[in-house]
Amino acid sequence: MNNASRPEGLAFLKMHGAGNDFVVIDSRSRAGAVVTPALARALGDRNRGVGFDQLAEIRPATGADFTLDFWNSDGSRAGACGNATRCVSDYVMRDLGKTAVTLVTARGGLSAQRLEDGRVSVNMGPPQLDWRDLPLAREVDLLHLPLDGDPAAVGMGNPHCVFFVADAGTTDPALRGPAVETDPLFPQKTNVEFASLIGPDRLRMRVWERGAGVTLACGSGACATAVAAHLRGLTGRQVALELDGGVLEIDWRADGVWMTGPVAHVFDGWLSPDFLAAMA
Questions:
Q1: Is residue 164 part of a domain?
Q2: Residues paired with 90 in a beta bridge
């Protein structure tokens, strides 16, 4: 899978982290990126394409092991994707024979490592806690946004709006997520999380992702929720989050927000020439 293409098609991997699923295209051997908005939309169609929550393209990097670009299933770019970062890092570590890698995303330089139990940790960098960095449309109190439900806002390379509710497990993100995603307060739209405290330093969380909809897990959303929970005084800096697809562990350290969880490489495939030709 090191070669991104061959005459009869384009190679890809299908991976997931806690049910958050991805198509991965390895373009390290190519002169440039291969993914376009049209290709991302076509691949993201679960009936006519492959289907994914996000698409990740691996590209060469200077001063790091690789560069990683993210796309949503609607063809828009994603600024960060923590679970895809963990999955791709595991793939590259195995390819390079390493147990730790460095990478570059739109967020900047990140690092990842594989633990002895097979889980992968990634440092997602420090949270963005200035309204201009998220960004928001105007200056407001990030811990108490002027929206019904008293949500908090945290940036993790992409914007997040976190609601603390009585029972996240029975909350349907699709009921309110779309309206909050496109609220004028978020000029670049936002991811929307619904979380509830279910034990000491343990949260239940469900998510509506910007450009993707309801997903089984969201890594950057888990990071943002853990940061918001700590700043609200609900938890410490080490938090376990139960998502629809599994458990992610978050540790907000001095050097950034570390996220740890499972990864899975499901299958490899090839996109047909006819499918690719329709994207031309």
A1: yes
A2: none
Q: Are residues 44 and 15 in the same domain?
A: yes
Catalytic residue among 81, 87, 161, 223: 81
Q: Distance between CA 223 and CA 155 in Å, rounded?
A: 9
Q: What's the total number of domains in the chain?
A: 2
CATH number for the domain harbouring residue 160: 3.10.310.10
Task: Inform me whether the pLDDT recorded for 113 exceeds 80.
Answer: yes
* Residue of 87, 161, 218, 223 marked catalytic: 218
> Do residue 229 and residue 271 come from a single domain?
no
Model pTM score:
0.91
218 a catalytic residue: yes
**Is residue 64's pLDDT more than 50?**
yes
On the 0-12 / 13-18 / 19+ scale of CB atoms within 10 A, 135 is middle
Write down the pLDDT at residue 228.
98
Residue-wise pLDDT for 43-54, tens only, equals: 999 999 999 999
Domain that holds residue 243: 152-254
161 is catalytic: no
